[in-house]
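User: Can you predict the 3D structure for this chain?
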Amino acid sequence: MSKKISLADWQTQLGANNSPEALVPASAADNLVYSTASGRINSKTEQEIVGTAYADGALRVRRETKGRGGKTVLTISGLTGSNEQLNALCSELKKKCACGGAVKDGVIEIQGDKREQVTAVLQQKGYQVKQAGG
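Assistant: Here is the predicted structure, written as structure tokens:
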């Protein structure tokens, strides 16, 4: 018959140290989100760059109503940066224009037709702006 031993004794017989990170293989540690030994594991991910810039380097400010139930929305495309940077710029534009908006797929959407205000704010920040669309 086999003798029953504790987990700690078994690990010492195998020569493993008792740290929780040593118990997880390196390949599984990359996908690890939560460990019962240490709790939530925050992975250090690089910030993903979203948005595509145009060749001339200018931002496009476009007024759209199609597919939005007749509501007018201002879209700003041509920005590149992380989601945090785009969200910060979007929130600044929403405060200056006193309206709502969102960031979707690297494009900032501002509710309403505020082209003059948005263009002025973006030019003050040093962006080259072109108005496109109706």
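The first helix runs from residue 7 to 14. The chain has a mean pLDDT of 81.
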